[in-house]
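Record 1 of the preview.
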Amino acid sequence: MRVTILTLGSLGDVAPFLGLGKGLAARGHGVRIATYGRYGAAIAEAGLEHYVLPGDPARLLRSASSQGIARAGTNPLAYWRSQRAQARAIAAKARPLLDEALAACGDAELIVYSLTALMGGAIAEARGVPAVQAFLTPVTPTRAFASILAGRDQSRLGPLGNLLGHYVAEWALTAGFRRLLDDWRGEVLHLPPARPRGLRGWSLRGGPLAEAERRRCPRLYGISPEVLPAPPDWGDWTEETGYWPPPLPRDWAPPAALEAFLAEGEPPVCVGFGSMGEADGQRLTALVLAALARVGRRAVLLSGWGALDPGELPDGIHLAESVPHAWLLPRVAAMVHAGGAGTSAAVFRAGLPAVVVPFSGDQFFWARRAAALGVAPPPHSWRQLTAEQLADGLDSVLSEPSYRAAAARLAGRLAGEDGVARAVAAIERLGPRSRDA
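->
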């Protein structure tokens, strides 16, 4: 069958879908990834078709509204306000993106869409083809754990508080885009608004997530149940498959300078904050370098999209823009990262202890989860982080055997999973051939 995968955002929002897409292609399906042009090379390396959607995620993440989201931390109200500001900022440019997403699905027999591309559900509904939600972070309401936007103190929430928190988070995540999507649904797709009707004709749980749940659209999570056990109150249309690791690029070879650095001494620490580009990257870099000096460790710094902005580096520090995690992480002693879903998965699978420094959104959730699993100390938000705190965290994960032992045990359990194969099997059960059989 012909499958279009819709996903937007940073590399961490796209890379797992290269692994999923490659798994579908290996089964003989035609796979098209619809996302930004920035990722064209990675998609080509995976041997998949690319439909270019308009926009530049790096520019968006450097915008004032994105900085507001980062500053919001785990404050749901501040997060929602910043999301609304971001929605207003991009609304004028969003219509071409929606129209191109529709064109990308023109011949699709099944549509897979991510949490960052919720228009996929409406496109599938309008075209009368099956859809699969494929998410990397949990947004299905549950009593079992707090939402991805919950604050650090979980002890007082309780099951009912957890459930209500998920509803608030769902509202915060989608409120800024509901009107835009509803207008487009009506004007272009000729569909009614995605708002389930209550006694007064309106429901707080409107929007694309609630609409998909009402329709019981299958939802696959690229999450391991070893990391986050599936709650019993999730519906039977929701499944955790295990992770979808991105493929190592074909013919990729590490830079000679990096290989030489790794061979010069004991395994270094890896520090990288991915797409978390911040205005004061020099301050964050200085803090990282001061912490590394305190613990006396060599390090590989991944500059990413600008969170780290080093000038002249001291001895024992190697700078690289980006290196595939699948190659690098088995060669380092520990990882300092922001806690994004994709990086967290890579660190868990590599069996590495970590120090997690969350910036915004679901990063706080995964940072707390890493601490609960015993593979990382309790996190400090980057805005409150000091060099002393980071050094203490690094000293703990490097010197206390419990962290490395917990990370190794978790990696051993994850090694027995094949999340891509399980997700592919679930998608194939929903395809047109299966329905016609």
